[in-house]
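re: ur question from the group chat, yeah i did fold both. here u go
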Amino acid sequence: MRSPVLPLTWHLIRSSGRRGLQIRLLAVGAAAVGAFVLLVMVAATLGSAARADRTDWRTPEPARHGTALQALATTYIGHEPVTVVSLAQLPGHPETPAPPGLAAFPEKGEVYVSPALASLLHQLPASRLADRFPKVSSYGTIGAAGLASPDELVAVVGRAPTDPAVSEEAEGSTVWDIGQAARAEISGFSGTQASLFTSYDQQTALVGVALLVMPVVVLAAASGRLGAARREQQLAALRLAGATPRQIIGMTALETAALGAAGALTGAALYAASLPLLAEIPYGLGGWYVSQLWVGLPWLAAIVVAVTGLITVSAVSMLRQVATSPLGVAQQADPRRTRIIRLVLFVAVLLHLWSATGGGQLSTRQVLGLLLLFYGAFWLFGPWVVDRLGRLVGRFARGPATLLAGRRLSDDPRGAWRTVSGLVLAGFAAGFFAVSMIGMDGSAHRDQVAVAGAHASEVRALLRDAGVTATVDTVGEDDWDGLLNGTPGVIAHISGGGRARLDTAVTALTPANPARPPFTQDYATAGDRTAIGRFAEVSTATLALSFLVATTSAGLTAAAGVLDRRRIYGRLRLAGTPLKVLDRARVRETVIPMVALAGGTTAIGVYVSYRLNKAVGASINAAGALELAACVAVGALAMFAAIGGSRPLLRRVTEDAARSAD
């Protein structure tokens, strides 16, 4: 016998009218946003790893039977790192393969530069940058295979085996050289150590992903429950008419799976079309190559299936009451209470987080696990708080709008929680990131240029010839507080300051020690600045995406709530309730739990960040309080705007009260 599930599903969709079509379009839109954000998150994580893989060839990998010498050095121009790879073929040895991005191993005197560095060499005077490299009639170009970003500044210089730039002294001797200077005999370019400037990218991206996962899940779950009240009424009627629970579940799963798949495929298409624009968004070293942000068909299919499955499961999970008690649903006699076990579980998770962050350093995987655990616990805890808030508000209400809002909160705490959950969880991200940007003061070595192993007289002469005024001091092995950190050499204090003077001084002092380029505080603080910079960039992107997802979720849920409750609104209008009262009740239904819960999660985010910083021995950024206040204000305004966007819809569904109540 032919199953009636498909014909019935199609009939319900066709007969749902304009309101039903609007709800389904909202569901498709929510699924599209969720899939798009998930794909962007995955692309950033995978792309960060791909960028790091393109830099590991620059750190020389020692070989037992080396055929060439390779030295890594780092210099800076305008606070931006310039990676310099010096290569020298050893005589009497087999030819060394070409490095990534080059067609052949560079000959002595050849200089290859990245497109971004080539542009900079033409823009700036030679005394600021070009004079740091051997003079050539023209520069070769490093291809994309050897670059992590199209904005990266990289130079590959061919040297003689006797050149000081590839001597043993080029290995470096200060603590600042780790990740910025190295030297070894090599036989190829199969290194495994990523550049200092890309090694933090994926770890910090993963932290952002962990904080974004739950808001995206909330959005996808909300899209699966759009029109839940209308669907329950229709399916309850079918259940009373003789439909089996399996048929009810099959109809819902079929409809929501189709809507979820349509939305997820739309989001995937939007992601693919926006790849060139996404590649322009800077992260770390700069923009991206489009190929780095393409997740591939397996990941694309997995995200589409995941979003579709999540929406389907969310919709089907709402059918328990329809399957077991269709008469109660038809009569709308189901106050959806929550149990105190939610509070017990939430307290248990908080105690676990307290003990887990109490001491010792945490790995990236542990941090991600704790964040996901907290999000999951708060997702269970939120409806319980909303339920209790509704009861309190209803008991102490002094006006009809507040009374209606309290009754709605206590009658459907899960629905009210879904409206505000996105912003509540985004508030945790705001609180976490606002104070976790570790501050550092680099002013101790401002306007200084250090040259290891140089002589003061030579340094003075070079600076004088370049027209740079400076005070020159010689430091020894016992000076551990200076820029050279216990390495004998010379420190020049540049008069007048400014990046142009400092860059000119660095260029002028390059011949003072060809094996060790002169460096400034940018070199000394590179490791900390890179980690902090990546964290700050991820925090900004996370907050922006969190508020986007939260606002979308709130707007869609509010609009669907109006459509779902149009019969109730119609009856209230027939009873004489003014439209303003209904709108105020709807707004307060959102504002009350948002203020109570978003404030709590923001405070918890601040505290968790403080505990994590304490675990790694770092300080918090007190100035982040201003950023936190701005984020909360923007998020609240966006939420109100999203809810206010459904006000015309409320007016339309209540214009003909008699028809709405019918």
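okk and heres the other one u asked abt
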Amino acid sequence: MNNNDKYFKLTTSYLIKKINFCSKLILFIIIFTYSLSFHFLNDAFYKSVQADTTISQLVPDQSFDTGNHIYPPQSNQNSALWTNIGSAETVETSTFSVNLVNNKSKSAGYALFNGAIDMTQKVSFSGNFSLQANSSTDPFAAGDSLGFILTPKSTDFIANNLKSNLAADGTSNVVGKYLGIGGLSDSIFMGRDLYQNSDVDLDGSGTENAASNNVSIRQTNNLGELIKQAYPTTGSTITENMKIDWQPSSTLTNDKNVTGELTYTISSENRGKATTLSEKITVARSMSLGIIGSTGGNFGRLTYSSTEDEFNAYKGTQSVQVNYLDQDTNQPITNFSPSIIKANVGDTIKVLGKQLRDIVDINTFSFLTPEIPGYIFVSAPPLVVANNDSENNVINVTYKKLPIGKAHFNYQYSSDVVDQSILLPTINDTEGEINEAVIMPELPNLPDNYYISKVVTTDGQQYATLKDAISGEKYKNQELHFTLIVSKVVVPTTSDNNSSKQSSTAERKNEQGKQTSKDSTTVDQPQEQETIKKEAIHKNEKPNSESNDTFKEVNKEIDSPLKLPLKMPTEISQMPQSSVVAINNEQSKYPNVSAHNLEIQVAGTAGIFAGGVVAIGTITGFNKFYKFLKIVKK
């Protein structure tokens, strides 16, 4: 093996090792990056699906659903889901515990669940209640009532009812013998009635108008008045468990109520002897849940604490109507019917405009308003969904109508047009949003031999074309006006050929409004020069009336017969460089030559020049092709 072979073998081996090392390194980087990105994406996905909110684009005349309609099993233990009113005070938060009344006479305390219960579904929940009398040795002389309530009213209504529903003597029409549901229509109390009131209670244990150990399911009518009912009796347990079970059976045809069996069970804390009551009743589809403890002349400590039993319930829902209103008229915007949002009772609904789409509160259900042409979003107050309150479960989204600018256009004869008997066509106005560029209108054709000589704006500025006039112009709060001045083409006495050229001039003038925009300038009358006058027909420009004589002279000159023959160049090297040079040279040699002859001479010269170039090119190409054949043969 020679040295070259050894060197090649060593080099190859070294390169293979390097390639293997780099491959492993690249593979490691790819796997590490993939694992890291997967972990990150998986974590991000988990957070996104765990979010308690949703955001959607509202569409008029369509319905939306916030979802999330089932309560977590430990909802009864979450103090954040309860609101205290009256004398109620939270004691513990890990397992929700509350003092409803703490040794106060003539007091009442509620712990109200922030949501509502869907009574079209099965329901079960429980809680521990304790009572300790302070005004007597009788353990049941601790107050008036202690237990659960279900009501179609919202939590805000319950709170206001407690404060404002008072008799003439200042006593409450809510608690005491009314068991915390007085003034709440079609509501239910399930628990202990700790006082035997002869005017509202029938039978039962104990002495009338005295402390008792009665348990019951009691209801109010549609006026919020307590319905009289007999009581069963039970033992003198001080701390006990109360459980509610609901089994729906049928929904009424009006779809607002549901019929089912309500079962209330009360037992000792260690689940000993139990008393069970059941009633078949009709309730609203969505009922608010609360805990009530109240006292009168008898008072003590009344408490509630959650249990580890699962809270099995669906969330009560309500329909929220979203209206789209014109701020100025407070009326619905035409062709934009309301949207409907199915939401849980207690949810906060926010409706945001386009400019606020990045401001989203993660504790609410947020929706984006539709964009309405010609309007801009103004406001939409947030809403906390109330239970069975269609009158207030409404969000009014207000829009401000955008101002629309107008531009008017009209044709008007120039003052030097003698015959103004022909009616000029009408130009349609244009409209657009304020500060938007003015829209170019469609210009109707003018009569033959008439053209737009200039355009004048309201402030007196003059422009060569309409596009020049509106270039950079924007709609304003005040209306804009553009006057298109119409002039008549002066048709001189000429041959038929020139007459046809003059008529085409008018047609081209009518197309001025469709020319490319130029910078806005004030149009001044140009100083006519002799050369401009001579080229007037070819440029489709109308000469000034002051130069009519000269204009006629030019026409005469053009119409005169050709007097001198055109001199054709004999050598390509003497050929003029452009048609302009040719015209100048021939004019200097033959001052009386006509324009017609000049055109022929220029055309002939250009043709000869082009022919020469083609000939030279052909020869050159042939020589190259001949050389190529010689090379191929070799």
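fwiw on the second one: Confidence is low (pLDDT under 50) at residues 34-53, 233-237, 499-616. The chain has eight helices and 29 strands. idk if thats what u expected
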